[in-house]
Write a structure and sequence with these properties.
With about 220 residues, the chain is of the alpha+beta class. The chain has 6 helices and 7 strands; from the N terminus they run βββββααααααββ. A hairpin with a 1-residue loop joins strand 2 and strand 3.
Length: about 220
Amino acid sequence: MASSYIFLDTRAPRKDGSFPVKIAILHRTKVYINLKIYLTKEQLVNGKVANHPQKAYYNNLIKYKTSKIDNALIELGIDGRLNGMSALQVKAFIENDGENEEVVQPITIYTFQQACQDFMVMPKKTRTKEIYAATLNKVNGYAGDALAMLDINHVWLSKFGEYLESQGLTINAQALHYRNIRAVFNYAIDEGKVSLNDYPFRRFKIRVTIYLFTPNNFIHIKQV
């Protein structure tokens, strides 16, 4: 189910101390639509403009934009197209007023399954291919075989780890699957199928458990 909300993007202030007002669209991942309205933190309260000389105009504009987006999400959900679209495609549909049907064709979605299969075609040892196939099976078991590469972010990776843990996998077994997913991402980036900006492992650390083996036993050192 897709949703949207309005917020003040405070990451980079303008010279006058104001920030852009944006609408976030959540559909697997998150994309933003810039309303070209610039306010201070005190001028946007609970999604409404306050203490601004043009507050009436801005509030009407925000109401119009949010209504337009919500109606588009409802339309796409009712006719069944939403499930086959990425967040970027939803954004394009809204910005084109639903007129450019080309942007909503599911064939443009590059899935993890396709990326993994493309990656495994490259020369590899049989055992290596089996390990990547095992990772693909785990991902499909969690998210299905239509999972888009763009839908894999650090939040998804964390949830996937919870799924693997529920399956009884150790931290190190989970790390193996994470490294395989990372390798597939690197391949997709090198092939131009995915943007470097969508690389999810910048904010996600792969945990491993380190052991010290002695002649008679082993000692658990730490988890990093």
